[in-house]
Each structure stands twice: as C-alpha cells, then as structure tokens.
Amino acid sequence: MAAFLVVILTLFLGIAILFKLFGISIFKENPAGLPDGSMGHFPFLGETLAYLKPHKSNSLGFFLQDHCSRYGNVFKSHLFGSPTVVSCDIELNQFILQNEETLFRSSYPKPVHDILGKLSMMLVSGDLHKKLRSVALSFINASKSSPAFLSYVDTFSLSFVHSWRSKTRLHFFKEAKKLTFYLMVKNLLSIEPDDPLAQNILEEFLTFMKGFVSLPVYIPGNAYSKAVKARRRISSTLKDALKKRIKIMENGSDVRGDFLDELLKKDSLNDEEKVSVLLDLLLAGYETTSGLMALVVYFLAQAPSALQNLREEHQSLRKTKKDGEPLNWEDYKKMEFTSHVISEALRCGNLVKFVHRKALKDVKFKDYTIPAGWQVLPIILATHLDPNLHQRPLEFNPWRWTDPASNRKVTPFGGGVRICPGAELGKLETAFFLHHFVLNFRWKTIEEDGPMSCPYLDFKGGLMLEMEQIE
Ligand code: HEM
C-alpha cells in the first residue's frame, strides 16, 4: 500500500513539475471581469498548500498578505481542487453572505462531507437546511432563556475554576474544551461530567478534531481516517442515547426536560437527522466557545489595563449578588466591558478564518465577475485586520467597542441566513466563566504561544498559563 502511494505521489509531482517547467496552465484563460490572481502550477492542488500554511491568527499570514499586495483585496486562485475567488473585501463578503441560496450557496470540499456527515447543517441547503436550523435555534433559544441552565453554567464554571486552585500551571485550551464540552453534553443529553460516557464521547471528539484540522486525505491510520471513524462511533453512541430515551419515554417515566426530550417530539425529523443535529450542536457548541475563552484569556494576559477594568466590572457585579447566588440573564446584560473584551478577542483572534461558498450563476459585483460554479471564499480574518476599517488593527483594544459603529465592520459569526445561531450562547458561557476566573486568578502566558490559524484556531503549546490564586 505504502509503495503504491509513493508511486502515485511521485507521478503526480513529476507531472506538476513538467507543467511548471513548460509553463503549461491547465486552467482556461480569464473570462472578462475575473479578478487578477494566480491559479498556481499544481494540478488539482493549485495554491492550496500555501493558502493553508499556519500563521498567527491575529495576522494575515504570508499568503494573503502577498496576494492582496500583488492583486488587490479580491483575487482569483485555485484552492481545494476548485477555481476560486478569494475575497478580503468587507462589502463583497457581506454581499456573498446576504445572498445565500439566490446567488451563492454553502459548499464545502468533499472530505469535509465525509467528516461532518452529509446531513450536517453546514452542508445542506434549501428546505432541509431551514428545517434543521429551526430545531437548532429552538434549542439555543430555550437554553438562553432557561434560568436552570444559566444557573448550571454559572455553578459548573465556578466549580471548574475552583478545581484549579492547587495549580500553578495549566494547559488552558484543553481545560476550556473540557468545560464547554461538559456544559453541552449536560444541556443536550443530561449526561453528567463524571459519567464515563461523557469521557468517552470527549475522547472521540478530540480524535475527530485532530482529523478535522489535518490534511483531508483518506489514508488508513492517518488523522483524517481516524476522525471519519471517530465520527461514526460518536454518531452510533448518540443513536443509542436516542433509542434509550425513546424507551424511557414510552414507559412514561423520568422525563428530563433536556434537548433530547424536545428533539424526540419533532416528528418532522427522521432519526438520522436528529442524530445529525445533535452532532452539529455538540461540535459547534464546544469547540468554538472553548476557542473564544482561550482567545480572551490570551489577549488579557497581554493587556493589564483591560484586565483591571474587567476585574472591576465583575467585582462590582459580585457586590450586587448574595453569597452563592448564581448569575442570570440580567447580570449578563450588565457586563458591558466584558462584551467589549469578547468582541475584541473575536476580532483580533479570528476563531473562524473563512467560510466556503459557491457561485450559483455568473455574479457581477463592482468591477468583478465571479463565474457560475466557482468556489468563493469570504475571508473573515482579513476584514477584521483591515487598517481601513479598524484603527491600529493589530492592537487589542476593547475600548474601540464603545463606538457602536464597530459592530458593522466585523463578521465573526458569519452573516445572512447562515449566521451563527449559537453566538449569544457562546458569548454568555464565556462571560460567566470570565466572571469566576478574573475574581479567582491572576495569570500570565509563559512562552510565546499565541493563537494560530491552522486554519482552525490552535495554540501550539496548548496555551500554558502560570497562575496565581487571588486570596
Ligand atoms: C463562540 C464562538 C462562535 C463562533 C465564532 C462561531 C462562528 C460561526 C460561523 C462563522 C458560522 C457560519 C458558518 C458559515 O457561514 O458557513 C457558524 C455557524 C454555526 N454555528 Fe457557530 N460560532 C460560535 C459558537 C457557536 C455555538 C455555541 C453554537 C451552538 C450551541 C454554534 C452553532 C452553530 C451552527 C449550528 C452553525 C450552522 C448554521 C447554519 O448553517 O445555518 N456556534 N458559527
């Protein structure tokens, strides 16, 4: 098998080198209005490897910097096996996101389908997308307005933070993933953190994420193939949970009032769709929120005056609460500076670098034409760091959010009909966690281990913190 792969790879590279030597391009000449750019010289791959090269997530990275300075903020390329228009222009990005289903459609490369499953909300469109999204939205809205859930987020975050009291060093990113994962499995499935099943699903998710961020080529035993298998196992665990709960409900006993109970009442969804919604929410709900917590903690360690301001906000809020009284929705709404800190961490840290779309017809925008069938990549990160939109964009400055106009210049949660339904829930969990963290600890990062875009957010050293408990 290995020898066969080596032969294929050698042939592939040989052909690519011949193409490059003789200046042959496999791509058609520019249709009129197509943005300037380069399709690369490698068949199929085009410029994908250069595009995917990891870089600091609070920077454009070499590829985007180089291409924007050569060709402008909108350029053509060949990425993930398709001819592509890359947009680092906020107006074009918003135009693309707002015209979902009419001019553009969400379209992810085939390996992403194998890993997310063909019914994932990110991949389906039209009526099926609407149906799955409305179920996810009803779950998220119910969670936000459930005092019991908010109280659980508060007490669980506090107990998690307390469990770090004896520690002077902490791999923060891993811990944050555990925290947000346990919150999601409790809320969705009523599985308690000490249940071995929670541990088992978490391990599978960690394998899943390793493959999700790896080169998406199926070679038995590699990270990608392990992830495809881990997804199948998670899926079958969730199916079992569904079946068990149906039995419990049939016996008329022990109704938990969690999302699973609600999901089972949805006759419009078949079992496969129900499992897929569960999987989408688990994945999207824990991976992103833990990334947001890590970004906030990282940037605050470099910004003492912002941290001081934030701590004062939470000290004042604490004074309004009785001993042990949990935080609620009203408290969250009072956390004004906290919300600025979160918005600024999202802008600087870029949890999501870009999203995938495809043009459904020839689309004209300003002087450009995007041909039908071309892939389109709105680069969220590039607009967040654009000096024409944000003064001193590389500076972490939460106070810039006191100007409400700032909100119109960022899209950390995407836009249009696919705008992230979990935005407020992710921010709330982060805010409640921060409340307890800033009141209990001082911390610093111990080595240069900033957020990286790989292209998914990662910290090479896991964001190791040096911690000191506040007496
Ligand atoms: C906290 C930080 C978060 C960020 C930065 C974030 C970002 C995003 C972005 C950019 C998209 C749009 C993808 C696209 O247009 O292709 C998205 C979609 C989505 N997000 Fe989030 N998200 C976050 C938290 C959450 C949470 C907590 C949940 C669930 C509890 C969630 C659930 C989803 C779902 C289900 C979609 C798919 C929506 C659709 O296709 O209609 N997200 N998210």
Nutshell version of this structure?
This protein is α+β, with helices and mostly antiparallel strands and 471 residues long. The chain has 17 helices and 13 strands. A 5-stranded mixed beta sheet has the order 2-3-9-6-4. It has a 3-stranded antiparallel beta sheet with strand order 1-11-12, with no helix packed on it. A 3-stranded antiparallel beta sheet has the order 5-13-10.
Task: Give descriptors for this structure.
single chain; 17 helices; disordered N terminus; binds protoporphyrin IX containing FE
Explain what this protein looks like in three dimensions.
With 471 residues, the protein is an alpha+beta fold. 52% of the residues lie in helices and 10% in strands. The chain has 17 helices and 13 strands. The strands form four sheets. A five-stranded mixed sheet has the order 2-3-9-6-4. A three-stranded antiparallel sheet has the order 1-11-12, with no helix packed on it. A three-stranded antiparallel sheet has the order 5-13-10. β11 (452-453) and β12 form a beta hairpin. It is globular. Mean pLDDT is 89; it is low at 1-28.
